[in-house]
Specification:
The complex is a heterodimer.
Chain A (H helix, E strand, L loop, with lengths): L4 H11 L2 H31 L2 E4 L2 E5 L3 H6 L3 H32 L6 H8 L1 H4 L2 H12 L5 H8 L11 H29 L4 H8 L4 H29 L3 H6 L11 H11 L3 H31 L1
Helix pairs in contact in A: 2-14, 4-9, 4-11, 9-11, 11-14, 13-14
Chain B lengths: L12 H27 L1 E8 L5 H13 L2 E8 L1 H13 L7 E5 L3 H6 L20 H5 L2 E2 L16 E2 L1 E5 L4 E5 L11 H13 L5 E3 L7 H13 L16 H16 L10 H9 L3 E6 L1 H4 L14 E4 L9 E2 L3 E4 L7 H11 L2 H10 L6 H4 L8 H11 L1 E2 L7 H18 L3 H18 L5
Parallel strand pairs in B: 1-2, 1-3, 8-9, 11-13
Antiparallel strand pairs in B: 3-12, 4-5, 6-12, 7-9, 7-10
Helix pairs in contact in B: 2-12, 7-8, 7-15, 8-15, 8-16, 15-16
The chains are: A mainly alpha, B alpha/beta.
Chain lengths: 302, 439
């Protein structure tokens, strides 16, 4: 091909619409990947949620039957209640503790860098490992708590054999593991606050508590809201720790939606019902996130 | 850089010839190793971690290798194997050539039609050397008893073959039960209490209390010994009849009072620690844990643990819970797996299995002069006394879960076993109704 022929060929291609199509061609691989790994599974999950499965195969279409069945299934309602209780309690405790730790660690003193590093260690440990460690602490026959109790002349400590203590033990595990996340986000928020209002408050003679209520907390509200929303969404999906520590028991006292859904899908092969459960769970979390975003906007506006 | 740099030396003819010869020898040697591996029959076996397979792993796999099988043995934790293998079989992933299933899983795999017909592949299920109740468990739909909807008229097909003949037996402290194995539950408790009073043990019994499979597995032999029956021949729930309720009350009441305080959260590791550590007087367990009694590295009371038939109230019936082998239709080395099973179930190999200390699945296996452990003759006694499998239904996992939840709640309370069975019966019936069992 001669040099003079190139511009002619390019003009022909442009005439055929190459320039117009080029952006779409460049986007096509990414779009195909998204379709394959996100849209199709979502569609397939929705389709499965309207079918009745036996022996791993869809037998018949049941429309919204699986969704309706959920709301009359005592196991689902129990799991929903356990999950909401778990999320509410865990996130509330983590937020308060995270805030207190952040306030303490926002100051500069000798060893503070080491302390900040140590405080975030639980968050970086694999959840399954954390659950195994807590199992070794809680076990009534050879656990650390029982060893302490017996050394002091007491009885074996039973955490995992009682519904209330097992649930509390699970919350304690979650608090231990995820308070560092709240601490880290709030600490970053604290360190980005302007210093002027605090200096003015000090000049005006405001005490620590008054400064915290009137200045720190209001200015920190957007950061707190983001941290709480993120952690709440994450807590709804808690699985590993419960799977290892209690398996949902004793009875069904720690049966979170994630465990119930997993059992339904994989252990009992009720694929359609499990799909309806997870779609419902997704919608609930999405609704929660949207409500939280609206709340966040209102907080920012005020 | 100096003139001595070897990379800059001129290559002589001799060096070139030496190098070529070396390469040729290396290629020849290298070529022989893969050729040898290619001759071996590759079989990928999936199993859940259980002491009942230890003799197979230690003695039979090396033997199989010497017979030309290239065995890859992949172990998983019990709780995840069912879903993992079912997904593998259903999606035709082809990750395994052989599953060593827990026998209650056979109906689920059989109904899903994901396993090879081993009868058609040349394994003879009618061979009289098989132990009857064990080979029966290999068929889907079952040759005897009620069948689930959709399989009423189907011809029973041998989709799995027994692999290790596991069943529950009693392990007891011979310094507490000095007259031999306690024959009744009353003996277990009464003599156990005397053992506690004498300071020999801390608790007469120990069992598993964790919700789901563990608690149901522990309760089942008590239930059977009280004369309980799970379903009638139309899948109507019968486990909450008077006998069943008596067994449940005894289990959550008397047995709990005579077990370690944390028994509600006990699984096999804790119950094993209680008997091997010398705290408990008696336990009903499968062979994988029972044979640890003779391992000085694992027990603190060597020589003080003996085996016997499970105690009776009406009958002395144990639960059968065998390892059973199935070949997925998606197995990459299907013929190798079938060849392996034929070799493994042959009289010679079964004799070797018994000598290695595992409970065989054929009668000839029990006839060996020198069984590998003293549990094997007791297992045969238990088979003669009575041993029953769990109901042959694809939904057993769900039934077990529903029943286990209620039993676990009653165990926490220490009473209300009968009411727990009524509640479980209601939820099991509701579940089986929507699954189409009664329509």
């Amino acid at each position: 091909m001669t040099a003079s022929a190139l511009p002619i060929r390019r003009e022909r291609l442009q005439g055929a619409g190459l320039d117009a199509a080029l952006p779409y061609l460049l986007l096509a691989p990414a779009v195909l990947i998204v379709l394959a790994v996100l849209i199709y599974p979502l569609y397939d999950g929705l389709r499965a949620s309207t079918a009745f499965y036996r022996y791993g195969r869809p037998l018949r279409d049941v429309g919204l039957g699986n969704y309706l069945k959920l709301w009359s299934d005592p196991e689902f309602l129990n799991s929903l209640w356990v999950t909401v209780s778990f999320v509410t309690l865990s996130v509330a405790i983590e937020t308060v503790l995270g805030l207190l730790l952040a306030l303490f660690c926002a100051r500069e003193f000798r060893g503070i860098r080491l302390l900040r590093t140590v405080l975030i260690i639980p968050m970086v440990i694999t959840p399954v490992v954390v659950a195994i460690v807590f199992r070794l602490i809680y076990a009534s026959d050879a656990g650390m708590l029982t060893a302490f109790s017996e050394a002091l002349g007491g009885q074996p400590v039973q955490i995992l054999g009682n519904p209330l203590t097992a649930f509390s033990g699970l919350v304690a595990l979650d608090v231990w593991e995820w308070t560092p996340l709240l601490f880290l986000i709030i600490l970053a928020g604290l360190q980005s606050l302007p210093v002027e209002p605090f200096e003015a408050a000090r000049v005006d003679g405001a005490g620590a508590w008054r400064t915290f209520i009137d200045h720190t907390l209001p200015m920190l509200r957007p950061v707190l809201a983001v941290a709480i929303v993120l952690r709440t969404i994450d807590a709804f999906g808690t699985f590993d720790q419960v799977f290892v520590l209690t398996g949902g028991g004793p009875g069904q006292s720690t049966l979170l939606l994630s465990i119930f859904g997993y059992n339904t899908a994989f252990k009992f092969q009720e694929t359609g019902y499990a799909a309806a459960l997870f779609v419902t769970m997704g919608v609930l979390v999405l609704a929660l996130a949207l409500a939280a975003v609206r709340l966040l906007r209102r907080v920012e506006a005020t | 850089m100096t003139d001595n740099n070897p990379f800059q030396r001129p290559v002589s003819r001799r060096t070139l010839l030496q190098g070529s010869a070396g390469l040729a020898v290396a290629a020849a040697l290298g070529g022989t190793v893969p050729a040898k591996a290619a001759d071996a029959k590759k079989v990928i076996i999936g199993a859940f971690a259980d002491g009942g397979l230890t003799p197979f792993k230690d003695k039979i796999i090396p033997l199989a290798k010497s017979q030309g099988f290239d065995i890859t043995f992949l172990e998983d934790e019990y709780g995840v194997t069912l879903e993992k293998w079912f997904a593998d079989a259903q999606n035709k992933a082809g990750q395994y050539d052989l599953y060593l299933l827990d026998d209650p899983w056979v109906p689920q795999f059989g109904a899903a039609d994901v396993l090879e017909d081993l009868g058609a592949a040349g394994i003879d299920g009618s061979n009289s050397d098989w132990i009857g109740p064990l080979i029966d468990m290999g068929y889907w739909p079952p040759r005897q008893g009620p069948r689930v909807k959709g399989f009423e008229t189907a011809t029973p097909t041998l989709v799995t073959v027994p692999f290790v003949g596991d069943l529950q037996t009693l392990t007891y402290r011979n310094d507490v039960y000095t007259d031999g194995a306690p024959a009744t539950w009353d003996d277990v408790i009464a003599k156990g209490k005397a053992g506690v009073a004498a300071g020999k043990i801390k608790y007469p019994v120990v069992f598993r209390g964790v919700t789901g499979n563990p608690i149901v597995t522990s309760w089942y032999p008590v239930f059977l010994s009280f004369g309980g029956e799970f379903f009638d021949d139309k899948w109507n729930v019968t486990f909450n009849n008077d006998k069943g309720k008596a067994a449940a009350e005894f289990f959550v009441g008397t047995m709990k009072q005579n077990a370690p305080p944390g028994v509600v959260e006990f699984d096999s590791d804790q119950e094993g620690a209680a008997i091997l550590g010398g705290d408990a007087g008696a336990i009903i367990q499968y062979s994988g844990n029972a044979i640890k009694s003779d391992d000085p590295a694992q027990t603190k009371v060597p020589g003080k643990l003996d085996f016997g038939v499970v105690p009776k109230q009406e009958k002395a019936i144990a639960q059968l819970g065998i390892f059973i082998a199935g070949v997925p239709k998606s197995a990459p080395n299907k013929q190798n797996s079938i060849d392996f099973l034929k070799w493994y179930t042959s009289p010679d190999t079964q004799a070797k299995l018994a000598e290695a200390g595992s409970i065989p699945v054929t009668r000839s296996g029990f006839a060996v002069k020198d069984p590998g452990n003293r549990l094997i003759p007791v297992a045969l006694k238990q088979l003669d006394a009575g041993a029953l499998p769990r109901p042959r239904m694809p939904d057993w996992a769900k039934v077990e879960e529903l029943l286990g939840n209620e039993l676990n709640k009653a165990l926490q309370a220490g009473s209300g076993g009968g009411a727990a069975l009524d509640a479980a019966a209601k939820s099991v019936t509701a579940y089986l109704t929507q699954a189409g069992y009664y329509s």
